[in-house]
């Protein structure tokens, strides 16, 4: 193995320490405690773990955490009423509605009903538009975390060939916008891309956000490339015991680490950075809401 392993867990801890320092300052100097509301509709075990981690880390950073767990059969009207209440609650600076939502709910409608200033996921259409036009916005947490790791690893990204595999609204597209903002030459690949292997081999920066366990093998990676593995896939792990599962990314880690210059592991890579950036966005939203200087280095 030759690649540098990018330690997302350690990086996330650093970001959370910075966030906590800003929270202390907001409390001591301004008497304001940033608050994050997380809304979970239905019972998805994976989402529940994630929501619990977020709540725990929010409290550890000194912020208020408001969790709203609604039954799977919640009506759209009831969900919109809750969002309306959170939009007007001055103690709530950030709102996150866990996706995916149950099929009877229109997620575009729900997301677009969040006050854009409190949209710490950066999924509201107005934040998407602001990001796309290079204006100040709330930046989606996962791509923001990836960008922070890339800048830390590479310094300037200017002129590098970046390939993003995946074109979802929550990862692929905003990731591509951020890379373009840092002057990469960006290619977005997806399920219809012809000769994906060839496209990937051109990448100085390869971001995998597909949702297919270990789909990208080492021989698709350009020697020396920086590989960011966003995928979180739970697969059976009979070697750990019957019925046990383990997490793998979208990249075949062992073979990719032979050729890459640097690579993020799964777990311990992008995932922890996503939560750290969510906390950072909540502090940013809180500062903006109160007309205060924003934390430096925690936004794109
Ligand atoms: N670490 C973290 O913090 C986070 C991790 N994730 C993980 O990232 C992964 C992607 O998530 P998300 O963006 O929401 O997923 P989506 O399912 O919304 O999007 C997947 C994308 O991958 C593309 N794709 C699917 N199959 C192939 C293929 N064979 N070849 C090339 N492209 C393909 C799809 O193409 P098409 O559009 O053509 O269908 C689509 O654009 C998942 O594993 C998810 O769990 C997600 C969010 C946060
Ligand atoms: N509105 C919304 N915003 C999101 O940002 C969002 C979402 N919905 N729905 C689901 C996906 C997924 N996601 C993850 C975040 C952190 C880890 C994470 O911390 N992972 C740990 C491992 C955790 C474990 O062991 O299960 C790691 O990679 O090291 C994983 C996945 C955010 N998402």
From TrEMBL:
InterPro entries: Aminoacid_DH-like_N_sf (IPR046346), NAD(P)-bd_dom_sf (IPR036291), THF_DH/CycHdrlase (IPR000672), THF_DH/CycHdrlase_cat_dom (IPR020630), THF_DH/CycHdrlase_CS (IPR020867), THF_DH/CycHdrlase_NAD-bd_dom (IPR020631). GO terms for cellular component: cytosol. One of its GO terms (biological process) is L-histidine biosynthetic process. Pathway: One-carbon metabolism; tetrahydrofolate interconversion. The keyword NADP applies. Its EC number is 1.5.1.5, 3.5.4.9. It catalyses: (6R)-5,10-methylene-5,6,7,8-tetrahydrofolate + NADP(+) = (6R)-5,10-methenyltetrahydrofolate + NADPH; (6R)-5,10-methenyltetrahydrofolate + H2O = (6R)-10-formyltetrahydrofolate + H(+). The keyword Amino-acid biosynthesis applies. Coiled coil: none annotated. It holds the Pfam family THF_DHG_CYH. One of its GO terms (molecular function) is methenyltetrahydrofolate cyclohydrolase activity. Keywords: Amino-acid biosynthesis, Histidine biosynthesis, Hydrolase, Methionine biosynthesis, Multifunctional enzyme, NADP, One-carbon metabolism, Oxidoreductase, Purine biosynthesis. NADP(+) binds at residues 166-168, 232. Residues 6-121 form the Tetrahydrofolate dehydrogenase/cyclohydrolase catalytic domain. Residues 140-288 form the Tetrahydrofolate dehydrogenase/cyclohydrolase NAD(P)-binding domain. NCBIfam families: PRK10792.1 (NF008058), PRK14186.1 (NF010783), PRK14188.1 (NF010785). PANTHER family: C-1-TETRAHYDROFOLATE SYNTHASE, CYTOPLASMIC, C-1-TETRAHYDROFOLATE SYNTHASE, CYTOPLASMIC-RELATED. Belongs to the tetrahydrofolate dehydrogenase/cyclohydrolase family. Catalyzes the oxidation of 5,10-methylenetetrahydrofolate to 5,10-methenyltetrahydrofolate and then the hydrolysis of 5,10-methenyltetrahydrofolate to 10-formyltetrahydrofolate. Homodimer. This is Bifunctional protein FolD. It comes from Alloyangia mangrovi. The gene is folD.
């Amino acid at each position: 193995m030759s690649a540098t392993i990018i330690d997302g867990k350690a990086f996330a801890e650093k970001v959370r320490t910075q966030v906590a320092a800003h929270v202390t300052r907001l409390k001591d100097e301004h008497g304001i405690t940033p608050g994050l509301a997380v809304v979970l509709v239905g019972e998805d075990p994976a989402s529940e773990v994630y929501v619990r981690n977020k709540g725990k880390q929010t409290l550890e950073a000194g912020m208020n955490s408001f969790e709203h767990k609604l039954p799977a059969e919640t009506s759209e009207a009831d969900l919109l009423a809750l969002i309306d209440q959170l939009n007007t609650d001055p103690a709530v600076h950030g709102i996150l509605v866990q996706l995916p939502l149950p099929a009877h709910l229109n997620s575009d409608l729900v997301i677009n009903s969040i006050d854009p200033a409190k949209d710490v996921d950066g999924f509201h259409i107005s934040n998407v538009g602001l990001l796309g036009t290079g204006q100040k916005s709330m930046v989606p947490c996962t791509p923001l975390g990836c960008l922070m790791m890339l800048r830390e690893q590479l310094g300037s990204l200017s002129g590098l060939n970046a390939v993003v595999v995946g074109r979802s609204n929550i990862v692929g597209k905003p990731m591509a916008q951020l890379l373009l903002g840092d002057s990469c030459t960006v290619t977005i690949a997806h399920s219809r891309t012809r000769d994906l292997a060839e496209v990937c081999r051109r990448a100085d920066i390869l971001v995998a956000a597909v949702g297919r366990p270990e789909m990208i093998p080492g021989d698709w990676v350009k020697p020396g490339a920086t590989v960011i593995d966003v995928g979180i896939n739970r697969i059976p792990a009979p070697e750990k015991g019957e019925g046990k599962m383990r997490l793998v990314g979208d990249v075949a880690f062992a073979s990719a680490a032979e050729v890459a210059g640097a690579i993020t592991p799964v777990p311990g890579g992008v995932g922890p950075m996503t939560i750290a950036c969510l906390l950072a966005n909540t502090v940013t939203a809180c500062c903006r809401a109160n007309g205060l200087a924003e934390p430096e280095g925690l936004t794109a």
